[in-house]
Amino acid sequence: MSFVPPSDPVNKKQVKVSQLCELCRCRKAIIRRPKNLQKICKSCFFHVFETEIHNTIVNNNLFYRGEKVAIGASGGKDSTVLAYVLKLLNDRYDYGIELVLLSIDEGIVGYRDDSLATVKRNQVQYGLPLEIISYRELYDWTMDEIVACAGVRSSCTYCGVFRRQALDRGSSKLGISHVVTGHNADDMAETVLMNILRGDVARLEKSTAIITQSSGSPIKRSKPFKYSYQKEIVLYAHYKKLDYFSTECSYAPEAFRGTARELMKNLEMVRPSCIIDIIHSGENLVLKPKKPKRTGTPKQMEVRTDGSVSLGFVDGNKCEKCGYLSSNRICKACMLLEGLENNRAKVTLDNDTSTQGTARLTRTLESLKF
Ligand code: SF4
Ligand SMILES: [Zn+2]
Ligand SMILES: [Zn+2]
């Protein structure tokens, strides 16, 4: 059986009923949705993809009218689609938010310099302001120098700590207290799996939160793509012809995450819904209540002129070295920097043992609670 799609009077090609979009039943299906294997047309795919993100935003009260929101923009597909979709939804549903692109330049030649060129094009394409914060200006180190000094194995540990603080500092500088990131459903499911496999109960509890805010930070972070599949983000970017950068970082991603990712991909092939199912499992986990911790009484937040922020806890809230918020005496970034400085001195004396001190420091830091 076949017929002419009513919505397409120009293209009078006959379409078999079995080829029709399962949602509108009038256009030819060209996409099999990775999330539920539904066969749908391009317009319906755009509509469901955007509407699901809008529902996530509304159901979780992610924004309030007049809020200034920074989009953590790397030039990669996730953050490029995030910037595009947030701008579109803000106009379509009148959220009344002010969007800014915030990029971190880690100093990785051949990777970040090229991806930042993409963000600069996105700035023009989407008409959004852009702020770039570099590790060089904040820490006087680039990731390339850190890897040369500490080795490639701990690159993501350093990069993760520095990026978190850089995003906080960048946002504070712009007077923004909300950063949205392009973390998607696959990332979240991987994190849940990793924490289960490692028995990391403390992290497991927080791993499915759509909004997070660490005790030492005035900046909240949220993930509007929490329920969006990576494959759908790629399809959306492809069909919308978005300008994004697809090269991987030159330094290996965290090895254990890579293993969890492989496991997730294999599971997804057998059961596509497993990504969402793992997230739902994480959301519904009920952990034993913890013993209450003694905490200081928070006072008022103060943003200094250099962009650093003070929360004013009664004690132990500011890093003694950089003055930035920290629940420890010295913040995690300063501890890493101290290790790097010591290591740089040692490298000139004894290159063979140079990474051992840093590896030990990394292990010590990982065991600390921040
Ligand atoms: S892969 Fe690691 S080193 Fe590269 S940008 Fe990501 S966190 Fe940084
Ligand atoms: Zn359709
Ligand atoms: Zn510090």
Describe this entry's structure for a reader.
With 370 residues, the protein is an alpha/beta fold. It folds into two domains: 42-283, HUPs (Rossmann fold); 301-342, no CATH class. Helices cover 46% and strands 10% of the residues. It has helices at residues 42-59, 77-93, 112-126, 135-139, 143-150, 155-173, 185-198, 201-206, 230-239, 255-270, 274-284, 332-349, 354-367, and strands spanning 2-3, 15-16, 31-32, 39-40, 68-72, 98-105, 130-134, 178-180, 211-212, 220-222, 302-303, 309-310. It has a six-stranded mixed β-sheet. A two-stranded antiparallel ribbon has the order 1-2. The longest helix has 19 residues, at 155-173. The radius of gyration is 23 Å and the shape is globular. The protein starts with a strand and ends with a helix. Iron/sulfur cluster binds at residues 106, 143, 155-156, 159-160, 249, 251, 253.
Give the helix/strand layout:
Elements: E1 2-3, E2 15-16, E3 31-32, E4 39-40, H1 42-59, E5 68-72, H2 77-93, E6 98-105, H3 112-126, E7 130-134, H4 135-139, H5 143-150, H6 155-173, E8 178-180, H7 185-198, H8 201-206, E9 211-212, E10 220-222, H9 230-239, H10 255-270, H11 274-284, E11 302-303, E12 309-310, H12 332-349, H13 354-367
Parallel strand pairs: 5-6, 5-8, 6-7, 8-10
Antiparallel strand pairs: 1-2, 3-4, 9-10, 11-12
Helix pairs in contact: 2-9, 7-10, 7-11, 12-13
Bound molecules: iron/sulfur cluster (SF4) and zinc ion (2 copies).
